[in-house]
Design a protein that fits this description.
The structure holds 2 protein chains of 2 kinds. By secondary structure, chain A is of the alpha/beta class. In chain A, 33% of the residues lie in helices and 25% in strands. A 6-stranded mixed sheet of chain A has the order 6-7-8-3-9-10, sandwiched between helices. In chain A, strands 15-16-17-13-18-19 form a 6-stranded mixed sheet, sandwiched between helices. Chain A has a 4-stranded antiparallel sheet with strand order 2-1-4-5, with helices on one face. Chain B is mainly α. The chains are: A alpha/beta, B mainly alpha. At the A-B interface, β4 and α15 of A face α9, α10 and α15 of B.
Chain lengths: 541, 307
C-alpha cells in the first residue's frame, strides 16, 4: 500500500551550522509529515530555519550546515542513513526542489531542451522535453531558447518542469516566486495547483507570505526560532490562530482599510515638489535605425505635491526604479524636463558637499546600501557633514537627533555598531536617517520594505508616514506591492512598460481600477486586499 | 583516555590551520635568520675563507663555494638582499596596480579606456625578453632590479583590481554615498578601497613570490650585480664554477632550497588570506573544526548523531 506512506516524514530533525564556537542550532527537533498529494505550507520569517529544513531534505544544505539528529523519510526512503550515491538517485526521482532564483538554477550557456534532457536522462521519465514545456504552459517552440531569453516567470516554470520531469512524489518549493511579480506568482501557482491535481504529487511550499498560503495550501505550519509553533489546516488556521506569534505575524501584514474615509487635504495652488514633463530614459541604440532599443521611462508627466505620499506601483521592469533614480539625480534622463523643488536635479558626478539636495534616496537593499566596513556613526556623520548648511560643531548632536527621529534609541549604543550587528529593520531606519540628514523636501523610497520581514514592514511604513506628518517631507514610494501602497499612500500612480497608465487617490484606484493592468495587479494579490481576519492587531514581542 | 581525547581535539582544531602555521614558521625562520646575518654569519660572504668546494663540515656547515667562500654566510647575507628587494618590488607593484585601477574606477570614461589600453599593452609584452633588454642596458644593482621588475610586474594586478573596483562600484552603498553628496575621491578611498582588502592582500603575497623568482632568474642569467651576494647570484656563480660537474651540490641546493622554501611558505600563508575573501573555504574549515574530518567533496550535507 504505497499510498499510506507519507510523501515526507520528518521526525525530531535538528540542523545546525558550524561556527567558531561549535555547532549553532538552526532547526530544533522539528517533526511534521506530508501525506501523498497534500499541499503543505511552511511559513516564517528570515532566520527561522524554514529554508534550512527545505535544503536538508535532499541533503543539499551547504557547508557549514550539519544535520545533527532526527530522521527524514521521503516516500519511505531514509535520506540520512543513505550513502551519497543513493541520495543522488533519490533526488529528482522521489523528490525535487525549486529554488528562489531560477536564473542560478539554470545553466546560462545551455539551451532549455538540453537541460530538460539532462534530467530525463537520469531515467524513468516518460515525457519528452516538448511535453514538459507544454505541461507548464510554455510554447514548445521555446525549447531552443537560452535561459536569458525567457522571462523570470518562464524560467521558474522551466525549473518546475524539470522538477516534475521524473514524476517525483514530492516537490519542495523554496520561496519560488519571491523574486517575481504578483501577477506572475498567481499564474505560476494556478499551474502548480492544476498539475498537482493531475499528477498527485505532494508539495512543500516554503514562504514568508502567509496570505499566499491561504490561497494555495491545504495545511500550514508556522516556524519561529527553529521550532514549529503551530500547524493546522488552512481553513482552521484562517479562522483562528492558536499561537500568539501566528496572530502577530498575520496582523503585521499591512492591510488597506476601506472603512475610514481618506481625508483629502485641500491644498492651495502650491508649487509641486516634483514635476516632470514628457520624461524619457532610453537604453541602447539600434545601429541601423538610430531608435532606442529599450525605453525604460516613456513619456512620463507626473506631479507630486509637498507633504504628499505617492506610491508608484508597477511590475519589475516597468521603469519605476529608473524614474526614482532620475528624480534623485543618480541617472540622467534622455529627454524631457524634470524639476525637483523648482530645480533640475544635480547629477551625482557634479555634486559637491554642501550642494542643496531636495530629493534623497532610501534604498531597497538593506544589506548592500550600508558599507559593511563602516560604523553607523560614520554613515550618518558623513551624510550630515556633506549636507548643505551644516555647522561642523553640531555634527554629533545632529546625528543623535537623526537617530532619535527614526527611533533608534539610546543613540550612543548604535554609533559604534557596524551594519551586520543590526537587524534588517534597524538597517532600514539607518537608511532613512541618512536620507533625512540633508533635510530633503522629497524622499524617494525604492521598495524600502520588500527585503524586510513581514512583521517589521508595517513599522517602517508607519515610520515613513510619521516622518511625513512631522517634517512635511513628501514621499515617492516605489513598490510592486499594491497592498502596502494602499496602506500608506495618498495617491497611487501605476506604471506599466515605462508608461503611466493610471493615477488617482489611493483608495479610488484600488476600489475602482480603470486600467486593465491595474485590475490584474489587484486581482493577483494573495488573500485579497482587505484581508478578512477578525483578529485585533497584536503587537509583536 | 583523557590524553587521547585532548590530543585528538587539539589535532582536529589545528588541522585547518596547520598549513598556514607551517608557512608562518618557515617564513619567520628565513626572514629572522637573514635579518640577523650580521651577527650570526660566521664569515664574510665575499671573502675566500676555506678551500675550494669544500664538503659541509663543522667549520663550514653548508660547505664552501668554487671560490672558497662560506655558503652559510652567503645564504644569510644573500637572503637579506634578496628578500628586501622582493618585498620592495611587491609593495611597489601592488601600489602601482592600485593607483591605476582606482584611477580607472574614479574617472571612468576615456581615462579608463586609456589606462586599460596601457595595462593591456604591458600584459602582452613578453616580459622576460623585455627584462633582459632593460637589465642589459642599465647599470646592474638593486635599483635597476626593482625598477625593471616593477615596470613588468604591475599590469595583471591593475586589471584584477579594476574589475574588483568596478563590481564594487555597482553596490548600493556606493550609490548611497554618491546620493548624500560625497566627493568621488573619498568614495574611492574610504568606501571602495577598504572592501578590496582580501584581494589586495592575496595579490601582494603572490607578488612577493613573483619578485623572488624573477629576481633569481635574472641574476642566474648574469643580469644582476655580480659583486653583490644574493640567492640568484649564488646560483649564477655555482653554474659558472661548474659546481654540477664537480659534484658540489651544496653550492646550488642551498640557494635553490631557500628560494623554493620562501615561495612555498608564502603560498601556504596565502591559504589564510584566501579564506578572508572566500566564505566557502571558511565554511569547510568550520566543518572540520566541528569534527567532520572528511571534506564535503560530494557536497552532501553531513549527518552527525550525538551518542
Amino acid at each position: 500500500m504505497p499510498d499510506l506512506v507519507p510523501a515526507l516524514e520528518i521526525t525530531n530533525l535538528s540542523v545546525g551550522y558550524a561556527t567558531e564556537d561549535g555547532i549553532r542550532t538552526a532547526v530544533d527537533k522539528v517533526s511534521f509529515s506530508i501525506a501523498p498529494g497534500e499541499f503543505m505550507g511552511l511559513a516564517g520569517e528570515s532566520g527561522c530555519g524554514k529554508s534550512t529544513i527545505a535544503q536538508s531534505i535532499l541533503r543539499l544544505l551547504r557547508a557549514p550546515g550539519v544535520i545533527t539528529g532526527g530522521e527524514i523519510r521521503v516516500a519511505g526512503h531514509d535520506m540520512l542513513t543513505a550513502n551519497s550515491d543513493r541520495v543522488r538517485e533519490l533526488r529528482w526521482h522521489t523528490a525535487s526542489i525549486v529554488l528562489q532564483n531560477a536564473l542560478t538554477s539554470l545553466n546560462p550557456v545551455k539551451r532549455i531542451s538540453a537541460q530538460l534532457k539532462e534530467v530525463l536522462e537520469r531515467g524513468g521519465g516518460i515525457k519528452t522535453p516538448a511535453e514538459l514545456l507544454e505541461m507548464v504552459d510554455i510554447d514548445p517552440s521555446r525549447l531552443s531558447a537560452f535561459p536569458h531569453e525567457l522571462s523570470g516567470g518562464q524560467r521558474q516554470r522551466v525549473v518546475i518542469a524539470m522538477a516534475l520531469a521524473l514524476s517525483p512524489q514530492l516537490i519542495i518549493l523554496d520561496e519560488p516566486t519571491t523574486a517575481l511579480d504578483v501577477i506572475v506568482q498567481q499564474e505560476i501557482f494556478v499551474t502548480v495547483k492544476a498539475l498537482q491535481k493531475r499528477m498527485g504529487f505532494a508539495v512543500l511550499l516554503i514562504t514568508h507570505d502567509l496570505p499566499l498560503l491561504f490561497d494555495v495550501a491545504d495545511r500550514i505550519a508556522v516556524m519561529k526560532d527553529g521550532k514549529i509553533v503551530e500547524a493546522a489546516d488552512t481553513a482552521t488556521f484562517r479562522k483562528h490562530q492558536e499561537h500568539p506569534y501566528s496572530k502577530a505575524l498575520l496582523s503585521a501584514t499591512p492591510k488597506v482599510d476601506f472603512t475610514t474615509i481618506q481625508p483629502v487635504a485641500e491644498r492651495g495652488p502650491v508649487p509641486p515638489v516634483l514635476e516632470t514633463h514628457h520624461l524619457v530614459k532610453s537604453y541602447g541604440r539600434n545601429p541601423f535605425t538610430g531608435s532606442a532599443v529599450l525605453r525604460a521611462v516613456d513619456d512620463m508627466s507626473f506631479r507630486l505635491a509637498p507633504s504628499e505620499i505617492v506610491a508608484l506601483v508597477g511590475a519589475s521592469g516597468s521603469g519605476k526604479s529608473t524614474f526614482g533614480r532620475i528624480v534623485t539625480g543618480l541617472i540622467r534622463p534622455t529627454s524631457g524636463d524634470i524639476l525637483v523643488d523648482g530645480h533640475t536635479p544635480v547629477p551625482v558626478s557634479r555634486r559637491r558637499p554642501g550642494t542643496p539636495r531636495a530629493a534623497q534616496m532610501v534604498f531597497q537593499d538593506v544589506y548592500g546600501s550600508l558599507n559593511p566596513l563602516h560604523t553607523i556613526g560614520h554613515h550618518l556623520r558623513r551624510a550630515v557633514i556633506s549636507a548643505p548648511g551644516t555647522d561642523k560643531r553640531d555634527v554629533e548632536a545632529r546625528v543623535a537627533a537623526l537617530l532619535t527621529e527614526v527611533g533608534l534609541t539610546p543613540t550612543e549604543s548604535y554609533l559604534d555598531r557596524r551594519p551586520h550587528e543590526l537587524s534588517g529593520g534597524q538597517r532600514q531606519r539607518v537608511g532613512l536617517a541618512r536620507a533625512l540628514a540633508a533635510s530633503p523636501k522629497l524622499l524617494v523610497a525604492d521598495e524600502p520594505v520588500s527585503m524586510l520581514d513581514v512583521s517589521i514592514r508595517r513599522d517602517i511604513l508607519n515610520l515613513i508616514a510619521r516622518l511625513r506628518d512631522e517634517q512635511g517631507v513628501a514621499v515617492l514610494y516605489i513598490t510592486h506591492d499594491v497592498v502596502s501602497a494602499g496602506y500608506i499612500a495618498d495617491r497611487i500612480a501605476v506604471m506599466h512598460r515605462g508608461k503611466l497608465v493610471e493615477e488617482g487617490s489611493a483608495k479610488a484606484v484600488l476600489k475602482n481600477p480603470q486600467h486593465d493592468y491595474t485590475r490584474r495587479l489587484i486581482a493577483a494579490v494573495p488573500g485579497g486586499l482587505g484581508l478578512p481576519t477578525d483578529q485585533p492587531e497584536v503587537a509583536l514581542p | 583516555m583523557s590524553f587521547y581525547e585532548t590530543f585528538g581535539k587539539i589535532r582536529r582544531q589545528a588541522l585547518g590551520s596547520i598549513p598556514v602555521l607551517v608557512g608562518v614558521v618557515i617564513l619567520v625562520i628565513l626572514v629572522g635568520s637573514t635579518a640577523l646575518a650580521r651577527w650570526i654569519a660566521p664569515y664574510n660572504p665575499t671573502r675566500a675563507t676555506g678551500g675550494i668546494n669544500e664538503f659541509p663540515s663543522w667549520a663550514h656547515p653548508f660547505g664552501t663555494t668554487g671560490q672558497g667562500q662560506d655558503v652559510l654566510s652567503q645564504f644569510l647575507y644573500g637572503g637579506q638582499n634578496t628578500l628586501w628587494i622582493a618585498f620592495t618590488i611587491a609593495v611597489l607593484t601592488t601600489l602601482l596596480a592600485l593607483i591605476v585601477a582606482l584611477t580607472s574606477a574614479y574617472f571612468r570614461g576615456w581615462v579608463d579606456d586609456v589606462l586599460t589600453l596601457v595595462t593591456n599593452v604591458f600584459l602582452v609584452i613578453p616580459s622576460l625578453p623585455l627584462i633582459v633588454v632593460l637589465a642589459a642596458f642599465l647599470t646592474p644593482g638593486p635599483a635597476t632590479m626593482i625598477m625593471v621588475l616593477t615596470i613588468t610586474g604591475w599590469a595583471f594586478g591593475a586589471r584584477l583590481f579594476r574589475s574588483q573596483a568596478l563590481s564594487l562600484r555597482e553596490r548600493e552603498f556606493i550609490a548611497a554615498a554618491e546620493d548624500v553628496g560625497e566627493r568621488r575621491w573619498r568614495i574611492v578611498a574610504i568606501e571602495l578601497l577598504p572592501n578590496m582588502g582580501s584581494v589586495v592582500a592575496a595579490y601582494f603575497v603572490n607578488q612577493v613570490i613573483f619578485a623572488i623568482t624573477a629576481q633569481a632568474s635574472l641574476e642566474f642569467l648574469g643580469l644582476g650585480d655580480g659583486g653583490q651576494v644574493t640567492w640568484g647570484s649564488m646560483l649564477f656563480w655555482a653554474q659558472n664554477t661548474s659546481a654540477l660537474i664537480r659534484g658540489a651540490w651544496w653550492t646550488f641546493v642551498v640557494p635553490g632550497m631557500a628560494i623554493a622554501l620562501t615561495a612555498f611558505s608564502l603560498a601556504l600563508i596565502n591559504n589564510a588570506v584566501d579564506e578572508l575573501g572566500n566564505p566557502r573555504l571558511r565554511a569547510d574549515r568550520l566543518l572540520r573544526k566541528a569534527g567532520f574530518r572528511k571534506p564535503s567533496a560530494s557536497l552532501m550535507t553531513p549527518v552527525k548523531r550525538d551518542a
